[in-house]
Amino acid sequence: MIPSLDSLVPLALDAGRCVLSHYRPETRVETKSDGSPVTDADREAEAIILDGLRNLAPDIAVVAEEEVCAGRVPSSAERFFLVDPLDGTREFVSRNGEFTVNIALVEDGVPTLGLVYAPALGRLFAGGQGGAWQAEVRNGELEARRAMRVRAAPTGLTVVGSRSHGSPATAAFLERFEVEAFAARGSSLKFCLLAAGEADLYPRFGRTMEWDTAAGDAILRAAGGLTATLDGSPLRYDKRDQTHDADFANPNFLAVGDLRLLARACMDSEVSST
To answer: Exposed (0-12), middle (13-18) or buried (19+): which is 59, by Cβ within 10 Å?
Structure first.
């Protein structure tokens, strides 16, 4: 049985409460083998989500960031969950509030359900076959939902990019567009701004993992947008045995609200090889 978005919301809220309980200056930060930070908030929030998913959908495999890091990786499956219990650990450590809890369902390589919860900001975003929506969270309770839809791209674009992982390639790419505003955001919030019609384009030149993107990507697709590789193909999930990178690593990608931007944004061969 495939769980509904509504059934996943309590898991995201519970994980968010756990994350906030560790949101203090003295939180201990460790460094993983890949150089990325990890905290007790990552581990404990992931345990909450894994336990909840086992109860909701015991037959659906779960690929979760800290489980993969520990070497616990389920076999490839047509349907599986992708979980990042604390996306934007650097933002969590720096205490800017731009970190999220990410839960996604992937079917045949496509993210079909997604929840992104920003507990410090009190915003929850969700998307699936019925469309995309957002809601405020106050005192741990979900308030009225508001439907979301991407907007038609204006002449002057609003671009979102990583707060912690900017690159010269991104700056060079954006020279081909008329950019009215650039908003630096952490974590999967960048996808959510596109889905909410608050931004137009998110180019990512640099390494990400599938659990970083799947939930936000699902929400963006449900709102009418798309995340694509540099040749315009929709970003796929459950990428394993990659000769050029680790399992579940993403290539460079472009996330757009208005699909007409994709044709303008796709790289030519010279830029793609940069």
So the answer is: exposed
Cα–Cα dist 188/211, whole Å: 10
Sign for the pseudo-dihedral over CA of 168, 173, 176, 177: negative
Looking up tokens 């990786």 gives: 73
Amino acid 46 reads E
- Name the pairing type of β-strands 131-138 and 208-209: unpaired
Could you tell me where the beta strands, DSSP code E, fall in the chain?
29-31, 37-39, 61-64, 79-87, 100-107, 110-118, 123-128, 131-138, 141-148, 157-162, 179-185, 201-204, 208-209, 226-229, 249-250, 253-256
* Residue 85 burial (CB count, 10 A): 29
For helices 40-56 and 5-21, what crossing angle results, to 10°? Answer: 160
pLDDT above 90 (res 271): no
Residue 166 binned pLDDT confidence (cut-offs 50, 70, 90): low
Q: What is the pLDDT of residues 11-33, one digit of tens each?
A: 999 999 999 999 998 889 999 88
Give the bridge partners for 107, in sequence order.
79, 110
Closest CA to 258 of 171, 155, 185: 155
Residue 54: pLDDT over 80: yes
| 174-213 per-position pLDDT tens digit | 888 999 999 989 899 999 999 999 999 999 998 999 999 9
Q: What is the pTM of this model?
A: 0.94
| CA torsion through residues 149, 262, 200, 188, sign | positive
